[in-house]
Structure formats: C-alpha cells, structure tokens
Amino acid sequence: SDIFSRIALPATIAHRGLSAHAPENTLAAVKAAHAAGHAWVELDVQLLGDGTPIIWHDAGVRRCSNSRGKLKKLNWEVASRLDVGRWFDTTFSGERMATLEEMLALLDELGMGLNLELKVNRGRDASALVESVLPAAMQSLPRERLLVSSFDMTALNAARRLVPDPQALALGLLYEKLPRDWEDRASRLGAFSLHLDWRRLKLAQAQAVAASDYRLLCYTVNDTQAYQRLCQWGVDAVISDDPGRLTR
Ligand code: G3P
Ligand code: MG
C-alpha cells in the first residue's frame, strides 16, 4: 500500500492547534485539540535568529506575545522567556513558545498527526529551515502521521531533495489560488496533496483535484455551510480553527 492509502486524514484538522480556544501554535493549543478529540493539527514552523526551530506563524512576536520584534533577531534564551498565552486569555498566562522538539515530543506522546507548514516569511532562508526541521520531524513521527506543506516552492523542492522517495514523506502544495499547471507541479514534486484557500476555490477546480491522485485540503474553514459544500465538492479534509463546530 502506498502513502496515499496509509495516511488516514481525518475530515477536519485543527488549525495552529485548537486556535479558537487556545493561543495558536502552542503546546496548550495542541493539548486542547487532543482533549476535544481531534486527531490531527496544522502547525507553522520557522527558525529563530540563532537557528532554533520553533512553532510560530508571524515574522514577528507582536501579535501573539507580550513583546515585539522580529523572529530573526531573537535567540532562544530571549524567546523562551516570552509570555505567548496571555494575549489570548489570562487563563493561558505563562504559556511559553514551543520549540519544534518540544512539540514533536508532545505529538508523539499523544499519538497525533501533524500537518507541518514550513513557513518561509519574507527574506528568510527556506533551505536552512528544511534542513533543521525535516530530520527531526521524520524521526519523531511515523510517515503515516506527518504531512509537510508550504507555500514556498524552494522549501518543498529542498524537502524532496532531502527525501527523494515520495513514499517516505508526504508533501503538500499550498496555494491561495490553484495555478493552471497544478497537475505538473504536483507530479514534479511527487506531492501527496494540494491545500487551497476555500474562498477562492471553484467547483470545477475542486472536482478536477478530487478526480486526480492528489488529496485535496482546504483552509481555513470555520463555517458549517461552507464545510458541507466543500464535502460535497469532494474535499478530503478541511483545516479549521474550531473543527468541533463543523457538522456534516
Ligand atoms: O496550512 C494552512 C494555513 O495555515 C495556511 O495559511 O497563514 O494560516 O499559515 P496560514
Ligand atoms: Mg499555517
């Protein structure tokens, strides 16, 4: 059996952990997703200035911490002291930024699946990210519970160069809008899936991808009507801030 059948994607994946109920991309958000019964989470990974891989979305820390400044200017000694929970709710005061290593250990312990998004913000080095993230992720999680995605083609190509066998690592192409040559791109990469913004997805596009060998995921789906429509369109999984609110 190939990787397409081995990866049992659930219908819904918790975006940045259970980000509607806990501070995004934290250990708390992943614990909350697990407690709510979600089997998979989507998380963003980047490097600090000192090369430490951490779970974080933005290029800076202003929105999701009690401090400010760019990630590339932070080292772990400073970053590890930030409060990344209080901005969301005082009940999460004292939550600390998660390193990739800490997060992988938690996911392994909980037996959860991970859609790891290689987040290459402006001016950051895609290859350095891939080289420090992939070996760790692949060592901690079985290939059935790991799906690595990115908007960044350099990152995806570097990942495939590092792990040439498509069966050994599932890769997902992230697009805001499906490009016309998506099938060529997916085949050249040896992709597992396409991850599309549901707001810009047309029925005919969804049907074309659903009819292909590639899995189709949509982000970020927080509306039940949209979810039901996407299910009818043949979408395999949706990434949601609050998957528990989505009903078939
Ligand atoms: O991976 C899906 C989604 O997370 C992509 O957009 O900005 O939420 O990381 P963003
Ligand atoms: Mg993301």
From TrEMBL:
Residues 10-248 form the GP-PDE domain. Signal peptide: none annotated. One of its GO terms (molecular function) is phosphoric diester hydrolase activity. GO terms for biological process: lipid metabolic process. Pfam families: GDPD. InterPro entries: GP_PDE_dom, PLC-like_Pdiesterase_TIM-brl. This is Glycerophosphoryl diester phosphodiesterase. It comes from Modicisalibacter xianhensis.
